[in-house]
Write a structure and sequence with these properties.
Strand content: 5-15%
CATH superfamily of the largest domain: Winged helix-like DNA-binding domain superfamily/Winged helix DNA-binding domain
Distance between the termini: 26 Å
Family: Belongs to the BlaI transcriptional regulatory family.
InterPro entries: BlaI_family, WH-like_DNA-bd_sf, WH_DNA-bd_sf
Number of strands: 2
Pfam family, one: Penicillinase_R
Keywords: DNA-binding, Transcription, Transcription regulation
Number of helices: 7
Organism: Roseisolibacter agri
Shape: elongated
CATH architecture of the largest domain: Orthogonal Bundle
Strand order of the largest sheet: 1-2
CATH topology of the largest domain: Arc Repressor Mutant, subunit A
Helix content: 55-70%
Largest sheet: 2 strands, antiparallel
Structural class: mainly alpha
């Protein structure tokens, strides 16, 4: 299921998932009010139904309202998306992906960001991975 999160969402579905991850859970109206250039309420309901059919979200009833929430935790979905990105565009190479990210950065990295990345690399070296 997690792999499908990486590659089976439209732009609008990803926006809806972002709203649900930010809020934890939300009604269709709450999702609609947080979307850029929001579609109609019925369109949001339809997209939520599609996301539920795809297995990305679930709902529970709160009185007359349906409340929607992601099925997979955000960090799990992020890891799945990164794995998919690595396989699809970088033939599994973390080095090539990191080089592309650093070359394509729209802003200069801060000293703290560079230090944190260096610490992560050193930790992986110590762990032998």
């Amino acid at each position: 299921m997690a792999d499908s999160l990486a590659n089976r969402l439209s732009r609008r579905e990803r926006q809806i998932m972002d709203v649900l991850y930010q809020l934890g859970e939300a009604t269709a109206a709450e999702v609609q009010e947080r979307l850029p250039e929001p579609p109609s309420y019925s369109a949001v309901r339809a997209m939520l139904r599609i996301l539920e059919d795809k297995g990305h979200i679930r709902h529970h009833e709160d009185g007359p309202r349906y409340v929607f929430a992601p099925v997979v935790a955000r960090d799990t979905a992020q890891r799945s998306a990164v794995k998919h990105l690595l396989r699809t565009f970088f033939d599994g190479s973390v080095e090539d992906a990191m080089a592309a990210l650093l070359d394509g950065a729209e802003r200069k990295l801060s000293r703290d960001e560079i230090d944190r990345m260096s610490q992560l690399i050193e930790q992986r070296k110590r762990e032998g991975r």
